[in-house]
Records
---
Amino acid sequence: MSRSIIAGLIALGLVGCSAGDAKEAPAGDAAQPVASTPAASSPSAPVASSRSTRTRSSGEDRPQRTGSSNHAVAQGTSISATIDNALSSRTSKPGESFRATVSRDVTDDRGNVAIPAGSAVTLTIVQLEPGSDQVRPEGRLVLDVSSVQVNGTNHAVTAELSPVSHSMKGRGVTTDEAARVGAGAAIGALAGQLIGKNTKGTEIGGAVGAVAGGAVAVKYAYRDIIIAAGTPITFTLTQALIFSAR
């Protein structure tokens, strides 16, 4: 009977060893998937491409669109206008400003209306002097185009103004000219007294002096430059005019 017990124990020992070997085998097989996990991490390439996609979608690499909301009136564009109020060298002075009105629409480089007809143009008097035979018969007239107003906003303009049509009007004998006539008569009378030494010589000298004084008055008499209201003007841009379109 003891032999049977010993045989049983030996059988149990063999069964336990075979069970232990069976348990160790799955553990060894499970190590293989762990070694293959680095290969599974290869999706890193798509991650990089998705980052570059986000960078492109941010718009940083896109070309910027400039000038789409601006009007650009090209250099060399001629603009026609009419003067609002009359101008005279007798009443107007250098440094003063006056206005004209744009006669017809002015388009930009895309064909859109940039300066509509009716827009206000501001001009400045640079020089305005009456004419006289003694100094300058035709007088002196120099005007400058300062700005144009579009939608209530003034835009500085650099332009060349074509000659402006005007007329010359004599002032007549003013106080200054009358003083010259009187001075001429007095000088003539004094000369007559010295030459003729009598009243008749004084009268003749005075008459001669008056004629001479009258000639001096005419010589120095002013003729004013007159620019009538509604006079057409034309100016040409010497520099492109660019402003915001609203």
Note: Confidence is low (pLDDT under 50) at residues 22-67.
---
Amino acid sequence: MVNFEQVKLLEAKVVKAIEHIERINKEKNALLQQDTELRGRVESYQKQESELKARLESYQKQESELKARLESYQKQESELQTRLESYKTRIDELEVLVTRFKEDQGKIEESILSALDRLNQFERDIEKSLKEKSDDKADLSTAEQTENQSTVISELENDSDLDDSDTEEPIEEPIIDEEHWDDIPDPLVDTASQEQSDETKNGELDIF
């Protein structure tokens, strides 16, 4: 038969078993609760991880775009630098050309002024020479006219003396109208005038 002590021992064991089961249930519930919390955290972490991955992809995409822009800007900078160097070289060449042009312009102006001075001196010399030739020809023409008049008068006087000695009859001397004497064309004067006109034309041609 079962005695009282055995019953008490069994009851004590049952109580311990019940307490142990309750403790296990509490621990189980706690573990379940922790598991639920952990699952929630895991889901939250997974969601955050997805968001972070999306952000990372966006940042990587932005990084790629920024790299492409940077390369484009570097290329443009290189082209602008090349253009700037080309412009600087062109500016230097233009400055040299401007300096040479100024120097050449000064020389050209001096040459033009010198040529004008020589041209003016040449014109004065030609005018002086033509005037001297004209004066000389006028004096020569006057002397020839006087000599011709003297010759004609001498011949007329000689003819008159011969007639007087042969016929001894008075012969009227030819009347020379001095007013119309100048109307008689002098071939020497006409020739001198023609030569002067030709020399004037030649002088004008030489000037131009």
Note: The radius of gyration is 70 Å.
---
Amino acid sequence: MVDLGLDSVLSEEVQAEESWCTRMPLDCAQDLAWRADPQLMEGAGRLGSANLKRFIDVLGALAGLLLLSPFLVAVAILIKLESKGPVFFRQKRTGYDGATFTIYKFRTMAAYEDGPVVIQATRQDCRTTRFGRFLRRTSIDELPNLINVLRGEMSLVGPRPHAVPHDRYWSMLVPEYEGRFLAKPGLTGFAQVNGYRGETRNVESMAARVSHDLDYIRKWSMRLDVEIILRTLLIGPFDPAAY
């Protein structure tokens, strides 16, 4: 019997402050300008009341976990055989309306941070295990996100969640950044299928990702979600930005 390590997985306990304006040095008028975008707020309203989206999230997460359970157990065994540590990596992320939640992923690194500073994974990252590199390259490490979808903390489609320290950092540099929190974070997203996936090396790349996230909220429909899921299945395993 393999111990999946749910009780012993790493937890990065980073406390997010209650007030956006008090935690960010940006001028509040500039920081919250996105709230004056009627199309964005209308899209957020539709997302917030989309019962069909939630139904598909639950159905998809249940089906995925059940159908893939033998495969997920095999991955867990290989992780335990390759290196010491828990099967699952657990970390605080920022979700809908700025609330934090604990995300589940397969552990892909031999070392992991626990504190207010989280180093983003890079290509040929020395912390990544050999099997972990394969999991990241194929996005298999993200499959435990289905647990978060089932719990209502994530959706199948939405802005990809970042580590809490990264959210705080980028919020100081990208004025519209916190507009992403108008939607539940997703297992995949509009930005990711349009080339903005993986490491963000500069402000321009993050600003472009945020722009796509907000466009998703503005244009949201079930048809758009289906298109994003299909594109993810087609290009996900071959995306050069996955590492």
Note: Residues 21 and 27 are 8 Å apart (CA to CA).
---
Amino acid sequence: MVKLALQRSVLWGIAIVAVIGGGVLSVDYTLNGFGACTNAVLNTIASPDGSKVVVIFRKECNATVPYSVQASLAPANLSSPAEKVPPFFVIGGTPVVSAEWRGNRSVGIAVIPAGGKVFRRQESVGEIKIEYK
């Protein structure tokens, strides 16, 4: 009888530890995943001299943050530029954004379909002029 009571106590202890541990892991996963975003690179376009790139990427966050498409200008030798260089252009949703170099000091940006909520639209990045269609 004592042995049975001891076994039940041990089993209940294991169950309680498992439930608490699972709850802690669940809360940790939820809090760390909340607001976490990833960048899906859609296109990388090199400048004519190969020294710079325009990176077009989609910012994908959890269900509470809508998608956006963004463009950054970075040195060509920089790894993961979408993660490291702030965007010069940000538009909400998932439109097609294209870029073309017009020489080494000018970039053209087009959005299809036109419209959408633009959150950032810089006219230049350093010495590079940005033209929007």
Note: The longest helix spans residues 2-33.
